[in-house]
Amino acid sequence: MSFKVTVIGAGSVGFTKTLISDLLKVPEFADCEFALTDINPHNLDMVHQIIAKIVAVNNLPAKVTATTDRRAAITGARYIMSCVRVGGLEAFASDISVPLKYGVDQCVGDTLCAGGILYGQRNIPVILEFCKDIKEVAEPGAVFLNYANPMAMNTGRPMPMAAYRPLACATVCSMARIRSPECSAWPIASSTMSARASTTKLGISIFAPRAARSRKTN
């Protein structure tokens, strides 16, 4: 049965190509629609061409669309993935340089510490906009998958808010080693993400009310 997967921030060429390439290896995703959206038309067009080529060369029935209209891309989607870097590399440079000015030398600065906090403050308002669109126009019961740093902040803060509490959400990281068994209830998590986890150690942590959280380390 065909369904729609939306990638927000699809102009992140490496992330988008890897994500969709992995999904296309799973039979359940072979004929779905991949809706790509980004605020950068040039990068979006480039990724659209790459993914369309992958689909064509492998003779897959999947459909690939691209639009700068985020709400249109989310409309009717069952899974919505976010790969955004709010503020781009220019803002990321400030996340490093401003703390460094005051003696805080960070290894990366996009997950924790001062840089991660600055990054999270930019991301959270934007992610709340994503959540609003998902609640209003996505398929009922749609799942939001965050694949961007700061991983914990991006979902840990927006999801407890009353307006978005029913929204199913998971945060995904290619380097994480923590997973939640609760993800097994989701087809995209059990068939796709877990399949990739067996070879690349992809970690999935699901947001859930504090009392319901159950995590273990591999």
Note the topology:
Blueprint: E1 4-8, H1 13-24, E2 33-37, H2 41-57, E3 63-67, H3 70-74, E4 79-82, H4 88-101, H5 113-137, E5 143-146, H6 151-156, E6 168-173, E7 178-179, H7 187-200, E8 203-206, E9 216-217
Parallel strand pairs: 1-2, 1-4, 2-3, 4-5, 5-6
Antiparallel strand pairs: 6-8, 7-9
Question: Can you describe what's shown?
Answer:
By secondary structure, this protein is α/β, with parallel strands linked by helices. It has a single domain, classed as NAD(P)-binding Rossmann-like Domain (Rossmann fold), CATH 3.40.50.720. The chain contains seven helices and nine strands. It has helices at residues 13-24, 41-57, 70-74, 88-101, 113-137, 151-156, 187-200, and strands at 4-8, 33-37, 63-67, 79-82, 143-146, 168-173, 178-179, 203-206, 216-217. Strands 3-2-1-4-5-6-8 form a seven-stranded mixed β-sheet. It has a two-stranded antiparallel ribbon with strand order 7-9. Strand 5, helix 6 (151-156) and strand 6 form a beta-alpha-beta unit. Helix 1 runs parallel beside helix 2 (41-57) and helix 4 packs antiparallel against helix 5. The relative contact order is 0.12.
